[in-house]
Amino acid sequence: MRYQHAPSGSRVQRPGSSTPIHLLDDDVLLIIFDIYQEDISTAYNDILLEPNWDSARWWYKLAQVCRRWRYLILSSPVRLGLHLVCTYGTPVAEMLAHSPPLPLILNLLDKVCEPNAEDEQAILLALQHRDRVRRIGLRMSATKAVEAHIGHKRTISCS
Description:
Distance between the termini: 52 Å
Radius of gyration: 21 Å
Oligomer: single chain
Helix content: 40-55%
């Protein structure tokens, strides 16, 4: 983008050129984030049927763009439908220690991957935050480990 210099030395934007994103106010940025989130809503709603972890974690990279975006995204978790995904290979202990208290989605449903002992331990750790768990998707071997942890207080559905 080219700027014309005003006599005072401040930059003046050329007519007809686009606005740099850092000049957009927070409300406009939230609208943009809403639209982006809506584009991946199918993956979010069907996360237990056909997991698409890149889509489910749509906000992770946006929150790393700059401090302002991170603050804006993390201060609007309900509006943006934010959650943390616990799945194969996720460092759940680190994530829980260093992330805000967002809702959790626990998913070990991938038909290609088989959960190892570390994955099952990570899910058990996440289950210690029951008030934050929004969705659970487990295959049979993981289901047995979780049943042993939480008992028969809740019904666990197997896919």
